[in-house]
Amino acid sequence: MRRRLQTWSELRPLLRMRPLELDPVARRLSRAYTVRDLRTIARARTPRSVFDYVDGAAEAEVSLRRARRVLRDVEFRPSVLRDVGEVDLSTTVLGRTAAAPFLYAPTGFTRMMQHEGERAVARSAARTGVPYTLSTMGTTSIEDLAAAAPDGRNWFGLYVWKDRGASTELMARAKAAGYEALVITVDVPVGGARLRDNRNGFSIPPALSVKTVVDGALHPSWWLNFLTTEPLRFATLDSWQGTIEELAAHMFDPTVELADLAWVREHWDGPLVVKGVQTVADAERVVGAGADAVVLSNHGGRQLDRAPVPLTLVPDTVQAVGDRAEVYVDTGFSNGADVVAAVAHGARAVMLGRAYLYGLMAGGERGVDRVGEILTTEIARTLRLLGVRSLAELTPEHVRLP
Questions:
Q1: Residue 106 marked in a binding site
Q2: 194 labelled as ligand-binding?
Q3: Which of these CATH numbers, 3.40.1390.30, 3.50.50.60, 3.20.20.70, 1.10.760.10, describes 38-400?
Q4: Rounded Cα distance, 131 and 125, in Å
Q5: Annotated binding residue at 97?
Q6: Which of 43, 229, 345, 358 could covalently link to 38 via disulfide, CB atoms 3.0 to 4.6 Å apart?
């Protein structure tokens, strides 16, 4: 072959320089193609103790690793030569249409991860067309969240406190503010042993020590936002100085039992979701007691280590209660293909927590928007590659669980 140098006219079409992006948030998010990419960005931008609070789990973190391993080992079985020119990602959640089969779960202390906090998540969820649940341990009040996202599907996540009067008041405030559903979390009679937090000396709010000051030098934008926005505090209790485990022991009621769902029903007449169910038998018990939906959840691996993997419970739970209640699932889900696997086996939707928090830490409200974009793109692509045009066409034949 005769060699020669290419001319400028031949090289010029190959030179496609990316336009210079002056907005640092847009520049960061443009490099994120997956939720794991957002996690990498979040880790670089957030103090270690805060990032580890989100990223970590209980004790040896076996529950979380098992959940992720099961999702990793899922096997898809596509059907080819199907018309998948158009796909429909919508589903029905508590009698209303959701644009995609995922929900944003309740997470505590959200303004600690990034100063925009719960308001940013709720606004983003409204744009994506999915429900968002505000936690009892949130850093934005029930009323302020409702005002920030008046068109959103706002749910309230309740931890039952030892002070039942305070819990009753929270339900009344959520009802008055127009919240659609109540999500009662039942897997926290005591706080799990979050060893990463203990080793980091993590507390609420973060304590100013030599260690945190040094960490602040490495994450100046986080500390600048922390020090120049409204003080970080719980929206539903006056103050707290200590660890999460100590807070749970102080506030949460370990005597809550099935009969207490009747007490909840006395004060809440809207849809009721019970989160933290880890056996089929318990799913049958809570649905029999009046729950409209159950969340198969081990709290993201943050409570009892070596707990069941929630995804593996989906088929039997759907068979047992699916004709009477909706079944949601969480723990370990980090991409749209994971969501498709759960829906194929009968889950109505997947609850996501860490995923949107990574987006929030990476880019604030726009970072959460990016999570929604990534997930919906991945779900649509997975459906097309499986040869189905809607979630309703998915069956267990499309997905083999390990």
A1: yes
A2: yes
A3: 3.20.20.70
A4: 6
A5: no
A6: 358
Q: Sign of the CA dihedral 336, 342, 344, 348?
A: negative
Instruction: Select which of 115, 219, 299, 398 is catalytic.
Output: 299
pTM score: 0.94
299 is catalytic: yes
Q: Which residues of 230-242 are buried (b: 16+ CB within 10 A; e: fewer)?
A: eeeebbbeeebee
Q: Which amino acid is at 103?
A: L
SS3 98: strand
CB atoms within 10 A of CB 375: 30
354 annotated as belonging to a binding site for a ligand = yes
The DSSP 8-state label assigned to residue 154 in this structure reads: E
Q: What is the predicted pLDDT for the residue at 234?
A: 80
What are the backbone dihedrals phi and psi of residue 245, each rounded to the nearest 5 degrees, phi first? -60, -40
Mean pLDDT by 10-residue block, N- to C-terminus, for the chain (402 residues)?
A: 84 80 91 97 94 96 98 97 97 98 96 96 98 96 97 96 90 98 95 89 69 78 89 72 64 88 95 98 97 98 97 98 98 98 98 98 98 98 98 97 93
Beta bridge partners of residue 326, listed in sequence order: 293
